[in-house]
UniProtKB/TrEMBL annotation:
Source organism per UniProt: Bos indicus
Family annotation (SUPFAM superfamilies): TPR-like (SSF48452)
PANTHER family: ZINC FINGER MYND DOMAIN-CONTAINING PROTEIN 12 (PTHR46533)
Protein name: Zinc finger MYND domain-containing protein 12 isoform X2
Amino acid sequence: MPFYNSEEERQHGLQQLQQRQKHLIELCYTVAQKYIFEGKHEDAVPAALHSLRFRMNVHGLSSVELVPAYLLLAEASLGLGRVVQAEEYLSQAQWTVLKSTECSYAIHSLLHRNLGLLYMAKENYEEARYHLANDIYFASCAFGTEHIRASGGYFHLANIFNGLKKLDLADTLYTKVSEIWNKYLNDHYQVLSQARIQQIDLLGKRFETDTGLDEAQEAEAIQILTSILNIRESTSNKAPQKTIFVLKILFMLYFLMMNSSKAKEYALRALHLAKKQKLSVQEQNTIQDLLNLISVEEAQPIT
């Protein structure tokens, strides 16, 4: 029996080690993703490499679980202008997927998105569109056509059309991306704003205002929505409502992230544009309600 006990303890120790490594895999992966969405590609590389090493330790050298780390390294390489290195990582990812019999739709989506980004960097827009269309297809299979995980494919496809001056197609896709994020954030925002009083603790602060996103997804939302905002603002005289729509989405995002100052900034910009363009009183009042909510938050006493 003592031998059994020691073997049991050994197995328990191995399980604990694997759990710690799995936690480190996710932590390193999220950190690397966040840096990439923030444009800090150099900083993303060490975290992505650590994620890859931990994945190798846990899953072996040929597991499909290595693919997300290869794709992060490819994307970081593209951000640093190292196209050949990015191609090497993508080739490794493709080969691993081809050998695997159990590859999820989500991983197929990520692979095609990164191939799309590679061909965008090489200015081969036909191939880029092909891979981004596949990205959208696999993301839709995995999560649904209107899910935020599908929005990145639509966004990059819109960027291609925008660069090719096919502005109507780009506009349609930017609108779709905005609507996807608006629905997602509005669902969380409505729950929070309706239950705001119940979510105030004894110190006069909210317990938490979860976006339902991890740090990397929040960084992705900021990157996508601010990029769309910059495009909308360049034509805001023609379509102010589209600009205000994105400003209100960014308000919700920052409000849910508990960044009141940024939320207030976007609401004020929306109100200023609504007044400048002489939009309806109803629209102006809707925006003013957002500012009033911020004021209530800031006025909560802290004792």
